[in-house]
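Protocol step 4 of 5: obtain the predicted structure for the target chain.
Materials: sequence only (see below). No template structures provided, no constraints applied. The aim of this step is simply to have a reference model before the mutagenesis design in step 5. Sequence pasted as it appears in the construct record:
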Amino acid sequence: MNKYEYVKKQLAKTNKKNDENYIVTRIWHLINDYDIKINTQQFVIRSDNNQRIKYGLIDLYFPQFKLAIEIDEAHHKSVVNQSLDQIRKNDIVNALDCEFIRIDATQPIEEIHNEIDQVVQKINQLKDEIDFVPWDIDKEYNPSTYIEQGYIDADDNISLKTVADCCNVFGAGYNNGYQQSGAPHKFEEDTDIKRLLFFPNKEWNNKLLNNEDVFTEYSTDQLKNEDYFNKRMFKYNQKIALFAYSKTSTGNFEAVFKGLYALNREESRSKGVLTYNRISKIMPTYYPTGDIQPVRIAEAYNEAEYKVAHFYTEEQITKFKVKYSDKYKVVITATK
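Step 4 output (structure tokens):
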């Protein structure tokens, strides 16, 4: 899929809602920048309520800027809906760690255009202020992009196409004929790499909960579930580098990176359902063993001393520090 096809698909998803279609397409055409990626009807897993999962769709989302745009049509004006909208907004902001802007579609066209202009101005301003990475539709699906970067971050909303791609981000070196749902991590021996289904199906009822900080793994086949439960509890690796196989803004099912999770044995035993807690949204990536590798000059660690990134150039270190500020500790391991 090229950029033209992708953008057409995004805009087409707004066709049945006149206000949304008008405002979204006007924003896109006024931006007039093919280095900026847009997602319409961005799917979001919101906070759960007593294990009941809630989902949300954002009218327009700019992943490079973590900027969500919501178009408020007439039905949003009721007191009840305004209250629900505020709850929904809070859930989305918490889930995506994003900025949220509303455009009131019930205003006169001059006011609507004024709010659209403010959004466009903000996007252009953000592009100048941040370490902007142009949208490259080919590179974003290529595991080498993240291997060379030295890390992969769930907050970057990264999707890959195959299980082999998911494993290759961590140095597996598989070809695309690889048919399993995952594989043991070749460099972090306590970790498995898994692409799991998170939509209704005949075999599994997996769930992402608590703004994706928790996930559960459960087979609808009782005997299979019991067997897998025992193997995961007592035999298999206790950590999972998770990719959720779900429908993305492209309209296709893709493997979306969610982070590193650790099995909560006590919770799993108590509920009888395998339950995992996210311990990091960011993980280091690896070159395959047989590849010629650049010299690793630094590493980054989180507060729990888990290594989250590798660096091969001074420029990478600088970009990482700008992006994450003091969130992670960078340790120099060699000089070039």
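Step 4 remarks: The chain has a mean pLDDT of 87. Residues 242 and 303 are 21 Å apart (CA to CA).
Proceed to step 5.
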